[in-house]
Design goal:
Elements (H helix, E strand, L loop, with lengths): L18 H6 L2 E3 L57 E5 L7 E8 L6 E6 L7 E9 L3 E7 L8 E5 L5 E9 L14 E7 L1 E10 L4 E2 L2 E2 L7 E9 L11 E7 L8 E2 L2 E6 L4 E3 L2 E2 L4 E4 L9 E8 L1 E3 L2 E2 L2 E9 L10
Parallel strand pairs: 1-17
Antiparallel strand pairs: 2-9, 3-8, 4-7, 4-9, 5-6, 5-8, 10-23, 11-22, 12-21, 13-20, 14-19, 14-23, 15-21, 16-17, 16-18, 16-20
Organism: Roseburia hominis (strain DSM 16839 / JCM 17582 / NCIMB 14029 / A2-183)
Protein name: Peptidase C-terminal archaeal/bacterial domain-containing protein
Keywords: Signal
Length: about 325
């Protein structure tokens, strides 16, 4: 629920308010607070299906020449491509018999994974499977979300067993397309569902002057709120969730006493705990605090010889490894 904020001011302007107004404008999010915890991705069980006996495999390891696919030969579990976890793979199905196998190692069943196939070449219909395979028992588990034509196929969630899994990309066995292959690449991602990124350190552009406040003053002097708007910041994914916020206390080097930094997430109506000037970490946690929103910055101080605060900010975040966020992958 969004709140109305009477004290919100434009970047660079000063609004001095009393303690009651600034401290009570928002509800405070403490690091121990329970605040709309991030909804965890569910299990891949919803995509679990019967083993399909039409999965192609050829473990001969005979490299196919002139394919333009640097991962060949990877037509079966014994010759499956390794080392592509958390990476984007560009490869092709270059003839009617081609199939591409890749391995991923799952070490923690509580950690969701993301597997998706996109940019299927025009006129083709490819399918993607996540499976467990045993050389004696064959395919023991299989997950898939089959789509027709060039529609992307996506699997997000947790599996119930650690170990080696295989991702298989092959031409659809149910398609009537002739010559269902192409020298053009498809795009495949296999890796963690949550990826991490950061914005900053960057200068906020704020010069917040506290003026001359004599030692012995007993009432905090406030400055703020100042708007720092990241709502339309193109370098941050839309669904990015804050994991840490750093706000520096640096300025013009003038003397101060009892300086506390203040920060609020205006878009969600939440204020962070105030932190003394030397402590840069304003927040650390996994609550559903959105990175991409309008932030407010302010401060309070007990004494100052014309201290000017010039804060820099860094926001660390996590975001979902989905097709729409692929451009943010490092």
């Amino acid at each position: 629920m969004l709140l109305a904020f009477s004290m919100m001011v434009s970047l660079g302007s000063v609004a001095t308010v009393n303690a009651a107004e600034m401290e009570n404008e928002f509800s405070t999010l403490k690091e121990s607070s329970s605040f709309e915890e991030v909804a965890e991705v569910g299990s891949l069980e919803q995509f679990k299906g019967d083993s399909i006996d039409k999965i192609k495999m050829d473990d001969s390891g005979i490299a196919l020449t002139a394919t333009g696919d640097s991962y060949e030969a990877n037509n079966g579990p014994a010759v499956a491509t390794k080392g592509r976890y958390n990476k984007i793979t560009y490869a092709s199905l270059h003839d009617a018999n081609d199939v591409d196998w890749y391995t991923i190692e799952v070490l923690d069943t509580s950690k969701p994974i993301s597997v998706f196939l996109t940019n299927i070449p025009s006129g083709c219909d490819y399918d993607m499977y996540l499976l467990k395979y045993d050389s004696t028992l064959g395919i023991t588990k299989m997950y898939y979300n089959l789509q027709s034509g060039t529609t992307a196929e996506e699997l997000y969630g947790t599996v119930d067993e650690v170990g080696t899994y295989y991702v298989v990309v092959q031409a659809s066995t149910s398609s009537s397309i002739e010559n269902n292959f192409s020298s053009s690449n498809y795009t495949l991602y296999m890796g963690d569902y949550y990826r991490v990124g950061q914005y900053g350190y960057v200068d906020t552009g704020l010069d917040i002057s506290f003026g001359n406040i004599p030692v012995g003053n007993t009432t905090p002097v406030y400055r703020g709120w100042y708007t720092y708007d990241l709502s339309n910041e193109a370098s941050i994914p839309n669904d990015a969730i804050v994991t840490k916020i750093y706000l520096t206390g640096n300025g013009n080097g003038a003397y101060w006493l009892g300086f506390y930094k203040m920060m609020a997430a205006a878009g969600q109506g939440i204020q962070l705990e105030s932190k003394i000037g030397q402590i840069e970490v304003m927040y650390s946690g996994d609550n559903q605090l959105l990175a991409k929103q309008k932030w407010l910055i302010g401060g309070k101080i007990m004494a100052s010889t014309n201290f000017v605060w010039e804060p820099q900010i860094l926001i660390a975040y996590k975001y979902a490894a989905t097709i729409s966020n692929m451009r943010f992958f490092a």
